[in-house]
């Protein structure tokens, strides 16, 4: 394999799930691997793959042995933040304790469920605006017209980005998380676009941060701008991380929720409240998690479930497989919206546990409530599902909705 080829391979999904069908349904492969080779080295991608729940938790919680300290670790390529010179911008997701605490500590409070709760009515308002636009003939693409715009607007508002720049942000974040197909030309093209987007976005954030150095607004850019412990690069990295991590992940939680509910024939039960919506959302997270894998690097020679992993090796933790481990979940291949407890690892585990988990949960809850409030019936066309390449989700989900009859 030439160097170019191996660079392409490392960015690809494993061969077994590279096809469209495999991307949509990697779960059979996970089951086989959990059974036959729960910790396995993939020569092609030069990475260790970890499939069982306990092993996944061990890797994520043992940050001395498995470091996140590498730009590309983290939520795959989705949150790597390099500036145009190729330097890794330090963000919380790519550093270990104690440095991690400095980069996360200043914002932790803002994302606690108690702080985020205040935002409920604003999310409901935005949901209402988006669903109102759908009402016309009722035909719409759930992804494009609802699941994509809602999280972008929410995170842009929390950051304090002027609304006229939202479209631009969507384009930038799409370029930053784009995945090449398996040719060197595509890798080069995607990398070029990524660098351009990073540069433009970095410059834009740098300007906003500078303007808000003496500000007293309660937006997150002002918070970062006025936090003394951060360097300029770290402030920019923080803004970029939040925008990326909070965006397409939530888009896919919304999409996967509608996909699961319809597939399982649960739309009505969820709409009427017969099935608890919040609980059902947790099951969507377990069953079809937007983030199927995260990466770490072995910081030392380490034993994992009888395997010797050498210092410097890449370790891919399959969250989507851990979530279906029969040692932890009864009937793991069944979608059970009432499942409790539901100890899924879709938001990760350990110090890097998702900062935005309360926000993502709130957004999903309010968005689905709003959707079911406005529409009596939502029909989903699942005849031609096409997987995303970046995260686990769909490129589109054509729907037809019937508005509630006014009494
Ligand atoms: C359904 C939606 C989401 C999913 C499935 C998800 C998933 C994850 C996962 C698996 C991690 C851990 C990564 C690792 O261990 O390497 C993570 C970290 C993170 N997420 Fe999320 N996320 C979601 C939504 C959000 C939102 C809405 C935000 C922000 C507003 C956000 C911000 C972050 C940040 C900042 C981190 C890094 C935390 C740290 O390193 O300490 N996420 N997320």
Helix and strand pattern:
HHHEEHEHHHEHHHHHHHHHEEEEHHEE
Main β-sheet description: 5 strands, mixed
- Quickly give the structural class: alpha+beta
Assembly status = single chain
Cofactors and ligands:
protoporphyrin IX containing FE
Strand content: 5-15%
Q: Order of strands side by side in the largest beta sheet?
A: 1-2-8-5-3
Count of separate structural domains: 1
CATH fold-type name: Cytochrome p450
CATH architecture: Orthogonal Bundle
| pLDDT < 50 runs, ≥5 residues | 71-88
Description:
By secondary structure, this protein is α+β, with helices and mostly antiparallel strands. The chain contains 18 helices and 10 strands. The protein has helices at residues 3-10, 20-24, 27-36, 53-61, 99-108, 113-117, 120-134, 142-147, 149-159, 166-177, 184-211, 220-225, 232-245, 248-263, 267-272, 277-287, 319-322, 357-374; strands spanning 39-42, 47-50, 66-67, 139-141, 293-298, 302-304, 307-309, 314-318, 375-380, 398-403. The strands form 3 sheets. Strands 1-2-8-5-3 form a 5-stranded mixed sheet, sandwiched between helices. Helix 7 crosses helix 18 (357-374), helix 10 packs across helix 11 and helix 14 (248-263) packs across helix 16 (277-287). Protoporphyrin IX containing FE binds next to helix 13, helix 14 and helix 18.
